[in-house]
């Protein structure tokens, strides 16, 4: 065991809580309401500090090393953004205070709404959605309401390419609509012929298309104009999944190309820390036609003061309050420091790094679309020539031994044995070379000593974990925390009833 | 500053390897007429200039550490031990979802322990790592109830005193689905009337305890409602304030099938409304229908104990349109903060926080109830919030409290409940001293007298 559990470290009577005695007269506690037992751990403050410090040392993070996790944009998270988000006027602000007492925070949000609209080429932005997936749900709800308000209530289909993130079909299903999958063509684009056939057959029932562009193969669709036109001509709308916006900054505005609604992942493109899986922010921007359908409240300006505004035909609330505010502060600081030229340089170098790494990796592993230039990421396959028993999982686990995080594996689903590699712009050439050199070394090991890969990792805190066992007989909770049910009552003075 | 290390020499070497002449050639798949848009953005700032701008924006807000605050209504000003922010280290903050468990045991064990402590707190059997906030956790509980109950269960009963924003989010999430949502017309606090809405098609009943108006329902009352829900084979969903569970019976003791709640009070700052975390705990029989990440215990190939993300077959990246929800990113770092908070507070500390809230809120209610023109409308027990009838419009009182007395007043209930126009929801936590409460009492008295 690497680190004991809190319950194992616990000793009755210890406490890390420093709280004052009450300064008001006590009121009797209500009889019949009180719990008998609270099975929380009891640790000293130093034990708590050591426990979490030990745990933190078991994590691999962007601050430690290369993290080329495709589609996740694990770029450096600037420390100044943390400092900005920790300012007392942001941290200690209640969301329901009178607006006159929160004008600075609202000004930041109004500025960010405008910056994101400008970057995306859209008319308006809502900062409410908490994550990319919530942004997707927002977009689909907006598109449906917009179309239904125009009397087109027969529309209930959403087209999703087979290369899409799982969130796209899941979002569609969640909103009660039907998903239709579109295949990809041999060059990794949306298959235009298949799309034409689907639209011809189902055009009048289309809500629209959810499109990630560049897609999860890291490719910019070569027929994008035709794809958008086909959907629009059928009266449908196009949702842009902004997961891969890091390829496009300063290079193209999705709104100008014809996307109707789009979410941005601020935790990817705008460098906010991923937090071990959140919090993120999935802000949503919309064209002029759909702007009034955005979720609210958003910040508006009237008579020189900032106010909360609900867009006229809003789909309503997606979460409580106004969004993941401190994530917004991080992103705002980042955008202000980069400016237009800096943002363009982000995408230029993200795409340059990815293409350089693709050029090197395709000398080692199959890269199915390697005859094309990629955008900010590319997909290789873990089929090493001369090592038939070695799989992508083995390669990924062996990469860990060399002090790097593995790429995204087994996604996108349309590429067998996929390794999805996104280096980001904040990595240097030496790091990319080390990754490629390591991959070459691993390929050699796969041919000469495949067991080394099958049993990897060897230098990590733990060996390979049994995920099947975890799912088959789930242990989701420390047995030290047994549920308290129907416990004996305490009397008002806190003593156990006789 | 753009944090990019590549030099011109690097770029040239890389372009040569790729086999293109310049960086622009890498973008040739973008249609020419859309390429190279102009950004109308303010000029880039250096780090010190950026901090100056951000500091100026921060300074334009009335920070609640510098003045008394009696505002809650779903976001609460509680004490955060210094160790909580100190331990939210970059190793927790700059990692992604722990998809590679061998190098993510820090996040995984912290979240396993978080789940365990939420189970302990709620009296449930399993907890997920998080939803986005208390509102979406409630909406996801409703979605799960629809999947967990048999076909034909399409009626959702929602208490009118569930947080108004949670009710709004439930409505947004359910838009377009063939369902009936009822409960808005029930008189606040009338659990019997809610029970009366339950029928054989009811998928779930969602109730808050304490409710939005601060009222605390007894385990007996709640159990009676649970029994009615279970008779119709529906699920009983209870939204909680986790701090209250330091003192009061957990919903697991009175028949809840799902416990949701806003986890922000557990070590997460107010932060102008987010990021917070949605608590979600349930019974083992429903876990496979639930949404959101779960950590499970297992062993490595050498038999060492370790933790992994598990039950992934519920999730969108495996199941696509058949997933239980589209959720992917959650509020992981907020869950880590909540875990550190609970580890710090422990068995004794959390109870003490809850007791301090209880006693101070009751002292405030007693003092405010004596004021001419005001009246406390607390039917039954309450925890840290209560309803105060005021002699003047609440918005006006709050404006004067802020401008003349530098106090952040309570929530104007007339915004959500027309029948409660002129009523303020007052929140008192362990952060409010007796002197602050007395200051509020004196200010409200003066406001009433001055007219």
List keywords for this structure.
heterodimer, A: 498 residues, alpha/beta, 7-stranded mixed beta sheet, 3-stranded antiparallel beta sheet, 16 helices, 12 strands, globular, disordered C terminus, B: 451 residues, 4-stranded antiparallel beta sheet, 14% strand
| Global Rg of chain B | 25 Å
Kindly state the percentage of residues in helix of chain B: 25-40%
pLDDT < 50 stretches of chain A: 481-498
**Largest sheet of chain A at a glance?**
7 strands, mixed
Count the E strands of chain B.
Answer: 15
> How much of the polypeptide of chain A forms β-strand, as a percent range?
5-15%
Assembly of the depicted chains: heterodimer
> Outline of chain A, from the CA principal axes?
globular
| Structural class by SSE content of chain A | alpha/beta
Proportion of helical residues of chain A: 25-40%
The whole-number mean of residue pLDDT values of chain A reads 95
Tell me the strand percentage band of chain B: 5-15%
Mean of all residue-level pLDDT scores of chain B? 96
Report how far apart the termini of chain B are: 56 Å
Order of helix and strand elements from N to C terminus of chain A? HHHHHEHEHEHEHEHEHEEEHEHEEHHH
Secondary structure topology:
The complex is a heterodimer of chains A (498) and B (451).
Chain A: H1 6-9, H2 45-56, H3 79-85, H4 88-91, H5 103-120, E1 124-126, H6 132-149, E2 157-161, H7 167-174, E3 178-182, H8 192-202, E4 206-212, H9 224-233, E5 237-242, H10 254-257, E6 261-264, H11 266-269, E7 284-286, E8 298-302, E9 305-309, H12 325-361, E10 378-381, H13 392-400, E11 408-409, E12 418-421, H14 429-448, H15 450-454, H16 467-472
Parallel strand pairs in A: 2-3, 2-4, 4-5, 5-6
Antiparallel strand pairs in A: 1-7, 6-7, 8-9, 10-12, 11-12
Chain B: H1 8-18, H2 47-59, H3 83-87, H4 90-93, H5 105-122, E1 126-127, H6 134-148, E2 155-158, H7 164-174, E3 180-182, H8 191-196, E4 202-208, E5 215-216, H9 219-231, E6 235-240, E7 258-262, E8 278-282, E9 294-299, E10 305-310, H10 316-319, H11 332-369, E11 375-376, E12 381-382, E13 385-389, H12 394-405, E14 411-412, E15 423-427, H13 434-450
